[in-house]
Design a protein that fits this description.
Chain B: Residues 234-476 form the Pyruvate flavodoxin/ferredoxin oxidoreductase pyrimidine binding domain. The complex is a heterodimer of chains A (312) and B (632). With 312 residues, chain A is α/β, with parallel strands linked by helices. Chain A has helices spanning 34-48, 67-70, 83-93, 105-111, 113-122, 167-174, 187-199, 241-251, 274-280, 289-292, 303-306, and strands at residues 55-59, 74-77, 98-104, 126-132, 135-136, 142-143, 178-183, 203-209, 225-227, 260-267. Helix content of chain B is 37%, strand content 20%. In chain B, helix 20 (573-582) links the parallel strand 20 and strand 21 (589-594). The longest helix of chain B is centred in the last third of the chain and has 24 residues, at 472-495. The chains are: A alpha/beta (312), B alpha/beta (632). At the A-B interface, strand 2, helix 3, helix 5, helix 10 and helix 11 of A face strand 7, helix 8, strand 9, helix 10 and helix 12 of B.
Chain lengths: 312, 632
């Protein structure tokens, strides 16, 4: 018998199953876009019929990092910027788990930028949701890597002299096989995108635009938005990396100019996940590694029998 | 220690095949029945520079590199780096000779490649040869290698010459070459070996050897391996199936051995973007239900400080390996030092705790690495194996039976789905994973994917189910519970089912020498010599740094009048730790320190002890430093 019976227990679910019963209410400010992510994730998990116990939600630090306090599944609230390496390894150790990592723009694109690039490159089978509100929220309103040029804050009193980071271009060019942007103000699209991202076998990057009514007073900055997949103005083939790249290039300033583009930019269904590649070259066991420790019949190899001859 | 020993030094440039040749030669000597010990000295560069390896071989067990050496094989500088004729940097072509002569013992042998090296460039060479009674063989190894194969095979020619002069049967070498070499290069190498051997036999009087090589016999099967091998095998046997790392000397050795062997046992190795990620991956894999490890050396380990604290706060078991090299910063990448002790003990914020082992040799490294996993997984706490460039890289013979231990896939204190059904849960439905109030402070963990085991692991202070909380009562409860583990761990280690904290020498000795980690063997050899010379000395090699073995060390210090603490760093970190943990006997503790990039030789310890402790005088040498007791 498996030690992990919650895995694969997919039945019809209600989104409220992911609401912790007597959990304290979220500490997010009224009007915070983070509520939109929570709602979309609950809706997506219910639609996918995921058991709360086969999901591992790994978060970083910041307002976004508290997501797994308000979403009931297995959770790992880690340290600033480090959700991805922890999530990656959990998936490698037990590939049956549905692994979702989440964090903010400071957390994921700033301090965790290196991990972001390499996780996308390696195409781990997991979903990464980045709460992008263009500000550091929990540390009280400093300029973040996605804040627009000229953005003034207590730490950048003269306005930021830096170009904002282009997260979608970054993950696409690094090698992510699913790249999308959605917004808290568009809950239905957000849910659909998260469903697709979780179902995708590879690294799914969802840049989730969230408003910060407390520190980024332009709380309405992401309205109106245009869905690139529905709009006739943008013709995009989501299976074509170049098409996605061109669209990003042409519209990359739009986010800061009042027109917000959301939708699926890129979806490569053919590229094998990292785990698959690793299995192909013989560096990854077929059976989940974690199961082995709970299998009383498993025979553990010892180095004396396997490796010592070469030292004799 | 016996006079009847061979200490063979092969010197040349990086890329000359010093490492592979010495490894083969050491194994051949071991197979012939001798005890062997190798000492590596190499620069931080890929090709060229001055490098040497010493092999000490004796019929009796050898514990250190010894003092000096008695056979020099000087190959010349790296041919591999300089394919053009006469293309050398500065005067490097003479380095294998000029850099090595100070430590060559009286009556020793010099074999040098006259195809590359010229003794006339070394001032006073002939005078020194006469003065010291050295036997010099100028042999054109280069031409010999060229004639039979390729110039790079000079090392094989050198081994053939060594065998002829020292009276060693080349059959041992030939067998090893057959095992290790592909056919294409095997034949020319065998030919060169034979040619070199015969040439010396014909041209020199080898029936009256200049040097005697002992004969020995092992009473059980031996293996030749390094401390790094032993750590890797300890981890594998303890069921570790996941490693994540980033290359950094000298930790890379463990990482490489694990990466090469893990796929064979269905494990996973990940080379990742940086050390923060490496430690985080190990934590993630462990969280998901595997036994996992990571590691680094000084600077890389500094980056792991943050994940280390996370592992403690979330009570995620993990084993980290720290291979010390000379610091601070990037320091001297290929030189040993024991300067990271305090770094490893105290890094990471808050009241954070970890278990630290500091094995002395390969056998202890094997057992303590296994113990590090057992403790980490039973008590859900990070544990660290602290060693250094010296014991990580030195090859020595170890009885194969040391590794004949049952594997262990037990993952420690986890809860099963059956137990979860009856286990206490939070009103929110989450498992109270951090709730235990009983002995040892350990609360069983559930693994993601288990039914009924949902909880939140967080680096923030948390309630029993993992909810983030700053409640004062809960804070005190959780801190106390985490600290309670340390007492339980100390008690378990004191029961002593693995070799640790080794006592050496006569129980009733007047003086003590204390050391930790890689210097233990050298200290033990020094203790033997001191007692042979009529002193009364015993040693304690401490190999558990945290929690500190207060009782055992106190007993030792109580029993001696004075104690010399030997360690390879400039700030007496181990002595400081001892004083901090025990809180008394400070007046008994003085220090002998060495931090020039080379490990202690036994004579430096005997000299330091006699001069400073017995005679109360200042040390005449610049190589080591004496720091008197606080009350002196």
């Amino acid at each position: 018998m498996s030690a992990f019976n919650a895995i694969g227990e997919n039945v019809e679910r209600d989104r409220n199953e992911y609401t912790p019963g007597l959990e304290p209410q979220p500490t997010w400010c009224p009007g915070c876009g983070d509520f939109g992510v929570l709602k979309a994730l609950k809706g997506a998990a219910a639609e996918l019929g995921l058991s709360p116990e086969e999901m591992l939600l790994v978060t970083g630090i910041g307002c976004s990092g508290k997501l797994n306090s308000y979403f009931d599944s297995y959770g790992f609230h880690t340290i600033h910027g480090r959700s991805l390496p922890i999530a990656r390894a959990a998936k490698l150790a037990n590939p049956g788990l549905t692994v979702v990592a989440a964090g903010g723009d400071g957390d994921g694109y700033g301090i965790g930028g290196n991990h972001f690039m390499h996780s996308a490159r390696e195409n781990h089978d997991m979903t990464y949701i980045v709460f992008n509100n263009e500000i550091f929220g929990l540390t009280k309103g400093q300029t973040s890597p996605t804040s627009p040029m000229g953005h003034k804050s207590k730490t950048q009193p003269h306005g930021s002299a830096k170009q904002p980071l282009r997260p979608l271009s970054m993950s696409l060019n690094a090698g992510a096989s699913y790249v999308a942007r959605t917004a808290a103000v568009n809950p239905n699209q957000a849910k659909d995108i998260i469903v697709e991202a979780i179902e995708h076998d590879g690294f799914s990057h969802v840049d989730f635009l969230t408003q910060c009514p407390t520190w980024n007073k332009d709380a309405k900055q992401y309205v109106p938005y245009i869905d690139v997949n529905d709009s006739e103005d943008y013709e995009i083939d989501v299976s074509d990396r170049k098409s996605a790249s061109d669209l990003m290039y042409e519209t990359e300033n739009a986010l800061n100019e009042g027109t917000v583009l959301t939708g699926r930019y890129y979806h490569d269904e053919d590229r094998p996940s990292y785990q698959q590649e690793k299995q192909n070259i013989g560096e990854m066991p077929e059976e989940p590694l974690a199961e082995r420790y709970f299998d009383e019949d498993y025979e553990w190899e010892r180095s004396y029998d396997m490796f010592l001859d070469k030292h004799k | 220690m016996t006079d009847d020993e061979l200490i063979w030094r092969i010197a040349g440039g990086s890329g000359d095949g010093i490492a592979s040749t010495s490894q083969n030669f050491a194994k051949a000597l071991m197979r012939s029945g001798l005890h062997v010990f190798t000492h590596r000295h190499y620069p931080s560069r890929i090709r060229g520079g001055h490098t040497y390896t010493e092999i000490r071989a004796s019929a009796d067990p050898v514990k250190s590199r010894g003092d000096g050496y008695n056979f020099l094989l000087a190959l010349g500088d790296s041919f591999a780096r300089n394919p053009q004729e006469n293309a050398y940097y500065g005067n490097e072509e003479v380095k294998p000779l000029s850099e090595n002569l100070d430590e060559l013992r009286e009556g020793g042998v010099i074999v040098y490649d006259s195809g590359l090296l010229d003794t006339s460039e070394i001032e006073d060479f002939d005078e020194r040869v006469e003065e010291n009674g050295w036997h010099v063989y100028d042999i054109d190894l280069r031409t010999m290698a060229r004639e039979h194969g390729r110039e790079v095979m000079r090392n094989t020619a050198g081994v053939g010459v060594t065998c002829a002069i020292a009276g060693i049967d080349t059959e041992w070498i030939e067998n090893l070459m057959r095992d290790a070499m592909p056919e294409k290069i095997l034949d020319p190498n065998l030919e060169i070996l034979e040619a070199a051997y015969e040439m010396v036999q014909e041209e020199y009087d080898v029936d009256a050897p200049d040097i005697s090589v002992p004969e020995g016999e092992h009473d059980e099967e031996q293996v030749l391996l390094s401390g790094s091998d032993a750590i890797a095998y300890g981890a594998l046997d303890e069921g570790c199936r996941f490693i994540a790392g980033y290359p950094m000397t000298p930790w890379t050795e463990v990482f490489t051995i694990m990466s090469q062997n893990l796929p064979e046992v269905g494990g996973i190795s990940e080379q990742v973007e940086d050390e923060i990620a490496a430690a985080a991956l190990a934590i993630g894999a462990s969280h998901a239900g595997t036994k996992a490890m990571s590691g680094s050396s000084g600077g890389g380990f500094a980056l792991m400080s943050e994940p280390l604290g996370l592992a403690e706060m979330t009570e995620t078991p993990v084993v980290l390996v720290e291979a010390m090299r000379a610091g601070p910063s990037t320091g001297m990448p290929t030189k040993p030092e024991q300067g990271d002790l305090e770094h490893v003990l105290y890094t990471s914020q808050g009241d954070s705790h970890r278990v630290v082992f500091a094995p002395s040799d390969a056998a202890e490294a094997y057992h303590q690495t296994r113990k590090a996993f057992q403790i980490a997984y039973e008590y859900q706490i990070p544990s660290i194996v602290l060693y250094d460039q010296k014991n990580g890289g030195e090859l020595r013979n170890v009885p194969a039976s040391v590794f004949d231990e049952e594997p262990n896939g037990d993952i420690g204190s986890v809860i099963s789905e059956e137990e979860l059904a009856d286990a206490p849960h939070d009103p929110s439905g989450k498992y109270n994973r951090f709730q235990h109030e009983g002995e040892k402070g350990v609360s069983k963990r559930s693994i993601p994917g288990q039914k009924g085991g949902r909880y939140l692991a967080t680096g923030n202070e948390h309630m029993p189910a993992g909810h983030i909380a700053e409640d004062p009562d809960n804070r005190v409860f959780q801190v106390n519970r985490r600290m309670e583990k340390l007492e339980a761990i100390r008690a378990e280690l004191d029961e002593g089912d693995v070799p640790n904290n080794t006592h050496y020498g006569p129980d009733e000795a007047e003086y003590g020498i204390m050391t930790f980690g890689s210097q233990q063997g050298t200290v033990e050899e020094a203790v033997d010599r001191l007692n042979d010379d009529g002193h009364s000395v015993k040693a304690l090699g401490v190999s558990e740094m945290a929690p500190y073995p207060v009782e055992q060390v106190s007993e030792f210090l109580e029993s001696v009048d004075e104690c010399l603490v030997v360690e390879m760093n400039a700030s007496a970190q181990f002595r400081g730790l001892t004083q901090k943990e025990i809180g008394k006997y400070g007046e008994k503790l003085s220090s002998l320190l060495k931090y020039n990039g080379n490990p202690f030789e036994p004579e430096e310890i005997t000299e330091g002890f006699v001069t400073s402790i017995v005679e109360g005088e200042e040390l005449p040498t610049h190589e080591t430093k004496f720091v008197p007791a606080a009350s002196d």
